[in-house]
Amino acid sequence: MTQDPTSERVATRLFVEEDLRAGLALGLDRERAHFLRSVLRLAPGAALALFNGRDGEWLGRLDAVGKGWASLVVEAPRRPQVREPDLWLAFAPIKRARIDFVAEKASELGCSLLQPVLTRFTAVERVNVQRLAANAREAAEQCERLSVPQVREPLALDRLLGDWEALNPPGATGVGRLLVMADEGGAHDRSLPPLAEAIRAAAPRAPEGRWALLIGPEGGFAEPERELLAGLPFVVRGTLGPRLLRADTAAIAGLALLQSEVGDWR
């Protein structure tokens, strides 16, 4: 009797670029072949879960493995592709270990796109997009989501805001993507609502579930940037409370609020 592919225990999950179908043979790059052979110490016949963000999750089998190479065979579907949150994170880059942490946790929290944003007080000028993408991919493999976030090259804040409506054209309801600003100035601005309350109030404007979260740098947004953001119709402003948070903490807190209020935590 053939074992049910949905119940067979797998050694690990791997994201692949190729279309997935029964009988397909795949070759792995040197890095991932090393991971299977030397880290997990898998032998031919080991079961793997494969996904590509389009075709759901499939059962794969390690066909052969050697030094710097490995081949897989795709066997049968395990889970169908499902609709995931259309949730972006726009964030000012921070130091290496913590920016890696942001990419990892944003992937676990269901982000579909990571956009580094250069602001006036951004201290980090160079962003290793390939490393961020690798962190996001590894987190997606481990947390059992069926897609991997896209990671874009950094953009200046004014460029991002100027292109926002072109990047996010109105959908069927006539509304584009809303940008939720976690305003650190709100710690001293009693006119700003709590971020959860602001998201809840704005939810009827985004019935198609297209959202983005904007997190500023460690030094905060410059006052002209705050004024610019406050005047844009697609920006939703709120505060994360009376304490000033590190940028990575603010990103996680804001994403958790979005997922709980309008995302797939409900």
TrEMBL record:
Gene Ontology terms describing biological process: rRNA base methylation
Lineage top rank: taxon: Bacteria
CC annotations in GO: cytoplasm
One family name in Pfam for this protein: PUA_4
Domain Ribosomal RNA small subunit methyltransferase E methyltransferase, residue spans: 85-259
Chain ranges of the Ribosomal RNA small subunit methyltransferase E PUA-like domain: 28-68
Subcellular location: Cytoplasm
Family of this protein: Belongs to the RNA methyltransferase RsmE family.
The protein's role, per its UniProt record: Specifically methylates the N3 position of the uracil ring of uridine 1498 (m3U1498) in 16S rRNA. Acts on the fully assembled 30S ribosomal subunit.
Protein name listed in UniProt: Ribosomal RNA small subunit methyltransferase E
Species this chain originates from: Tistlia consotensis USBA 355
